Fold Surface protein TolT.
Amino acid sequence: MSMLSCRVLCLLAIVLCCVGVAHAAVPPGALQYVKEAQEKAKETLKLKAECENAANAAREAADKAQQFVVATESGVETIAADPDKVEKRKSEGHELIDKAMKAAAEARKVANRTTDSKIETENKASLARLSAGETDPEPEEIVEVEKAAEHAESAVRAAGQSADDAEGAAKRVEDVLKKLDAAVVAAAEKKEKQVESQQQTQEKQKEKQKQHYRSTVTINIHGDNLDALLNGAANNSGMALNDGSSSPALLRVPFLLLLLLSVLGCMTVC
């Protein structure tokens, strides 16, 4: 064999070794275990996709709930002053709470299923690796199965975080609705105080008018007017007595005095 032929054979051997290193073949005895691991990995990847969708839905529900919280807190007093806005806002809030909690529950449910499938995938990958024996590098089929399990684990963590965010946002919506209820009560109390203040002002004005009227009437029946009335009554009484008659005029004098005293007494009491 010539020197050139030897060199060609050596190069060919090196190339074949490199190909073997790049992709180790699965031993025949491990093929069944590898196949089972691959099938489980496919199932896990499907659940991973569902897990990602559920995480996105929970994240979207959390974002909408948080936007509601910010908008309500910034205008809580304005909303509280309008009963229609209050009812609408509370209805929207309860709907967002319901959606966020359902999205969080779904994300956790799918995450749990994905976790179970991931664990089974890892177990089957381990069994396939043991069946293949010590190979360097590890067969690509088994490596792909292990990567599927790792990707599923990442999706599970993301779903759990999104579920936490959705539940937290739902709790904040509940809190802001409580603030809205408190603002409604405060607005009602403020309005009631304003009405009471107006009523008190009106009552004071009426009382002043009454006092003014009483003062005017009192002035008219005091002083010279009262003396004139009393003197007139006395003169009438004296005239009636001097006449010595028992006419009705004589009987009316005490009655007029009594009536005058009654009026004065009533005004004093008032």
